[in-house]
Amino acid sequence: MSRISIVDVLKSDSSPGEIQVMGWVRTKRDSKAFSFIELNDGSCLANFQVIADATLPGYGEFIAHLTTGASVAVTGKVVESRGKGQRWEMQASSVELLGKADEDFPLQKKGHSMEFLRSIAHLRPRSNLFGAVFRVRSRMAYSIHRFFQERGFVCVHTPIITALDCEGAGEMFRVVTMNGEEIKLGDEEFFGKPSYLTVSGQLEGETYACALSDIYTFGPTFRAENSHTSRHASEFWMIEPEMAFCDLIGDMDMAEAMVKYLVKDALENCAEDLEFFGKFVDKGLIERLEFVRDRPFERVSYAEAVEILIASRAKFEFPVEYGHNLQSEHERFLTETHFQCPITVYNYPADIKPFYMRKNDDGKTVAAMDVLVPGIGEIVGGSQREERLDILRENLVKHGLSEKEYEWYVDLRRFGTVPHAGFGLGFERLLMFVTGVHNIRDVIPFPRTPGSAEF
């Protein structure tokens, strides 16, 4: 008999009859005549109640081992439940113990702190919260691919190891080989030159956009920034589309459409998990997601945004000044207090942006944009890329970058250059927004942060 997932059983309009389910014991209550066993297989938030009669073969042998965390295979008939809050339950005809759980299994029926659960990242997916988080993560990954595939984008796998610093910030992990305790550098570099873990697949993505028109990447990125905030991790995932024959307006249109698409998909397909988050994590979550799904995005220039923030006379931890990056508190003020809707800020000062962004006609700003949402702030950052050969060369010099090292990137401007644009969506930032979970360490399976690379 093949296994049926618990979510399929619970969603059935009629009893599926005699079936087999497999899962892990959440709780068990024994009486003289029978036991109530609550099973969960990770397919949904809800548990499935199994009634095991004391007359079952081997009952006395297996029932003592059905402690919290043990795994079982149960065969039986699905019948209407007499209990409240559930439609179906199972009358077991056989119970097979698959794996015992020692008495010190850490996920007992009590509250656990997030810090404790991070210390058992190999077991935390079995908790209600993290089971819900990673089901939503899976759905959002699927939805991202579907969004781009429906629009004719080509998925490109860009390299994890690179010799270039896309952002020019220098916060990169160097890749080295070792002979025992000795690190090989210089002439013994494995790739013949200094190489690093990538902070972005954008530059390589542009290569394929200049051949296939519309592409996207979806993969891990790494940043050696010694930051311990709840929004930063050393390893995180990025979605980076690149679109040929596209300007800043088209870039903003695509980014806003993507955010709305993902939020709508989460509301429609992760309803049970989102309801759980709304009850136990962020009581305003559902309302905020519906707000983003239904409201049009406002657009405001960086200069206008700075004027609004200064004129508000609001007290910020970081002072507002033209020529400085907006902080999360500034971004949230704009979305939650002033505009009271998602916004896209565009045309940033050139001095605070990377070399590849297209310079505007004023010579002072670049065609860059950030999409800001309530509760998070920036969720998308992008720009129109500088396609003009002479200006790109000037930018490389200004940023102290070697044209020789970026020769292949410069070639794209020599051989059939076109206007093109793209953006980056931090996958974990999206998940924090969609789930209401406040720490990036809790929306990635195995967090990598400064001083921590466990599991």
* Structural domain count: 2
Spell out the CATH superfamily of the largest domain.
Bira Bifunctional Protein, Domain 2
CATH topology of the largest domain: BirA Bifunctional Protein, domain 2
Rg is: 26 Å
Q: What class do helices, strands and sheet pairing give?
A: alpha+beta
Instruction: Give the CATH architecture of the largest domain.
Output: 2-Layer Sandwich
Tally the helices: what do you get? Answer: 13
User: Which stretches are low in confidence, meaning pLDDT under 50 for 5 or more residues running?
Assistant: none
Report the CATH C-level class of the largest domain: Alpha Beta
How would you write the strand order of the largest sheet?
6-12-13-18-17-16-15-14
Give the biggest beta sheet: 8 strands, mixed
- Termini Cα gap: 36 Å
What does the average pLDDT come to? 93
Strand tally? 18
Defining traits:
26% strand, alpha+beta, single chain, BirA Bifunctional Protein, domain 2, elongated, OB fold (Dihydrolipoamide Acetyltransferase, E2P), 5-stranded mixed barrel, 455 residues, 13 helices, 2 domains
